[in-house]
Amino acid sequence: MGDLVRSAALSGFTEVVAEAGGDPAAMLRRFGIDPAALQDDAALIPHDGVVLVLEHAAAETGLRDLGLRVGERQEEGMLGLLSVVMQHSATVGEALDAAGRFMFLHSPAVRVWAEPEPDVDAVALVYATTSPPPVRHLNEMALHFAHRVSRRYAAASWELLAVDLPHARMSPVERYEECFGAPVRFERDRAALIVPASTLATSLPDANPHVRQMALDYLATRFATPGQDVTSQVRGYLERILGNGSTDVASVGAALGMHGRTLQRRLAAAGTTYGDVLDGVRREAALRHLAHSDLPLAQVAAVLGLADQSTLTRYVVRWFGKPPSRLRREGVAAAR
Fold first, then answer.
1. How far is CA 7 from its chain centroid?
2. What gap in Å lies between CA 11 and CA 30, rounded to an integer?
3. What are the φ/ψ torsions at residue 227 (nearest 5 degrees)?
4. Of 49, 5, 4, 13, which Cα lies nearest the Cα of 141?
5. Domain for residue 213, yes or no?
6. Tens digit of pLDDT at every position of the chain (336 positions)
């Protein structure tokens, strides 16, 4: 069996398809989804089935914007307790960290994270799924929902610069503008919302640290990431927040639901140290950005959470035995 997803992922689907004259129950059954499961947001249904039924329903009803229509019907609490954590986070970045850490509760087939744009003043909030293509309507549904919820949480502070979609345009440009209010760029290499880099530090007006901590404690103590040991959890968290959040052991431990000293002891028991894990994440990120991007070296340093370009040079020489400019010229093969 493939990955599962909470049936809340298809909230709004039945209404959209029925209004277009389709038979949503028959479509759901065709792809292995019990229509009754959609009455319980916590019920689990096959993620690949969600992808396929969205594509099929769009073709059957002729709704080229079916994903967008479903996305605009979905409520901000769709992610359950994770929605509570996100809504009451202090900043957009803190909410995104929580989403990255606990999205597996919605579905292990989904990941979200932030990554810098070549323009230092922008970041991409990336949505990805392990389900095979086509995932066109899933992507449009997810990004429309994410945009709506982010605009609700951040209020007037939310600014969307652009939207990236990995497929060709399916609806009129005006329809995308109506949904996003920003340019939509097609046939890109990922599905993402592009926002100013300052967005991650934007305060959320509904922030309540006590409510957030209660929900976070509940999630942290009852739901460990499936199949992940502590080293993998730390590495995954650092990959998401590198350059955009605090990487000191106390902060990372708190984000993972434990004291910093507890985290260090658990890493030691696993045969490593916090410093080694952080160093490894930075090394991989440095290689990726130096070999596969044109980011100026000062920006690469910032992405790695390093103080300046000279610090980056010291690290890169230690890791690869050559300065960043030479590593960039020679590419990945020479660094292996």
1. 19
2. 18
3. 75, 5
4. 13
5. no
6. 468 899 999 999 999 999 999 999 999 999 999 999 999 888 889 999 999 999 999 999 999 999 999 999 998 888 988 999 999 999 999 999 888 888 888 887 888 989 889 876 899 999 999 888 899 999 999 999 999 999 999 988 999 999 999 999 999 999 999 999 999 999 999 999 999 999 999 999 999 999 988 888 777 666 655 545 788 878 877 887 787 678 889 888 877 767 888 889 989 988 999 999 999 999 988 988 887 777 889 988 988 989 899 999 999 999 999 999 998 888 654 454
Range(s) of the domain holding residue 189 = 77-201
Question: Rounded distance, CA 190 to CA 139, Å?
Answer: 10
Contacts of residue 243, Cβ cutoff 8 Å, sequence gap at least 6:
116, 302, 303, 304, 305
Rounded-to-integer distance, Cα 93 and Cα 245, Å:
8
Confirm whether 69 is domain-assigned: no
| Chain mean position to CA 72 | 19
Strand 184-185 to 162-164 pairing = parallel
Element (H, E) at 24: helix 24-30
The structural domain count of the chain equals: 3
Contact 221, 81 (CB under 8 A): no
